[in-house]
Each structure stands twice: as C-alpha cells, then as structure tokens.
Amino acid sequence: MTKEPLTLKNITEDLRSIAFCHLTNAEDWRFSFIVPITALAVLLGILLKNLWIGLLIFSVAAYHIVRYAMECKDYKAKERAIANVLDRGDVSVCVEVLSHIAEETIYEPHSHGRHSHATKTVTLLHFTSGSSWRIPAVDRHYEWSQEYSVSSKGLENISVEGDEFFCVSLQGHHQISYVYPCKFFVLDEELKTKSER
C-alpha cells in the first residue's frame, strides 16, 4: 500500500475545517439561548409595557452575545495562526497509539430546527497516552487526499486498536488538532524534522 505524503499545506486545510467546526458549534449553542431569550424579553416588555423587565431579561441574552463576540475574535486569532503555519510551521506533531473508539454524551447545547437539546453524542478516538480526539462533524476527512479521503464513519471503520496516528495540533491552540492514520500517510521532509525536534 502506498502512503500519501502529509504536508503543511494539507494540514492547514484540515486545521481550518476544525477551527470552523468550533465556531459553528459555538454559534449553534449561543444562538439557541440568544434568540428565544431576546424574543421573550421583547414580548414581555411589550405586553407588560415595562422596558425595565424587558431589559432585565435581555441581559441574559446580552451575556451570550458578548461571549459569542469573544469566540469570533478567538476564531480570527486561530485563523491568523493557521495562516502562519505555512510560513513558520507552528504545529506540534506526535505519534499516538489508538486505545479505543467511544461514543460519549457531552454537554453542548444545540438546536435542530425548532428543537433544542442540551447534550450531544460525539465519537472520540482515545489513545494509550490518555489523550483523545473528537471526530469533527465534517463531510469528508482528508478531502485533499487523492486516495484516502473518508467520511466520519469510514474513519471509524479503518481505525483499529493499536493503530498509530500522527497527531498534529496548532501551537498555542491545542484544541485545534487533527489526526492522520500512519498506515495511510507519511510525513514529508519538512514535517519529519519538526517531529524530531
């Protein structure tokens, strides 16, 4: 089986998709609070003809608006850091051994149409070092790859206990990371020197 070279350019594409997933998750759960609370504040303010009650209720939504603005600012910082990866190579690369794959229920408010939920079931790859990686909700993993582009279910199916993965994370933003099966990918020369340091 021929292994495909893993380059900084490829990694940059994947890290961008992870950063965008983080922003959309934040958007989803922040707006699940902002929209109904704002509507309630306006409705009660009008019905009770009392601006102060409306403003008091809206203050809860204002908190989430401010937090969302902070998350957008953080996303911009991550985007700048990802853009610098090609110039400076600010990524950490290590090899991890897969322990197991598990579905876990986490607290992450989100909405589907008119229904809101407080929890979400996500799939995590757990490694023998104790670290884990959440499989992001993207259409395809490794879209840049000619041979090994897979769906999330496909990634689960090809991942077997004991498999080695390259774990690449953005320096200064450890939550922005991606994993690559060593049986399909090999580090290019630039990344090899990075992982040996």
Summarize the model shown.
The protein is an alpha+beta fold. It has 4 helices and 7 strands.
SSE series:
EHHEEEHEEEH
Helix content: 40-55%
Largest sheet: 5 strands, antiparallel
Binned strand content: 25-35%
Distance linking N and C termini:
28 Å
Describe the structure.
The chain has 4 helices and 7 strands. The chain has about 200 residues and is α+β, with helices and mostly antiparallel strands. The chain has a 5-stranded antiparallel beta sheet with strand order 4-3-2-5-6. Strand 3 (about 115-125) and strand 4 form a beta hairpin. Helix 1 (about 10-45) packs antiparallel against helix 2.
What tags apply to this protein structure?
197 residues, alpha+beta, five-stranded antiparallel β-sheet, 4 helices, elongated
Secondary structure layout plus pairing:
Blueprint: E1 4-6, H1 8-47, H2 51-88, E2 91-112, E3 115-127, E4 132-134, H3 152-158, E5 164-170, E6 173-181, E7 185-187, H4 189-196
Parallel strand pairs: 1-7
Antiparallel strand pairs: 2-3, 2-5, 3-4, 5-6
Helix pairs in contact: 1-2
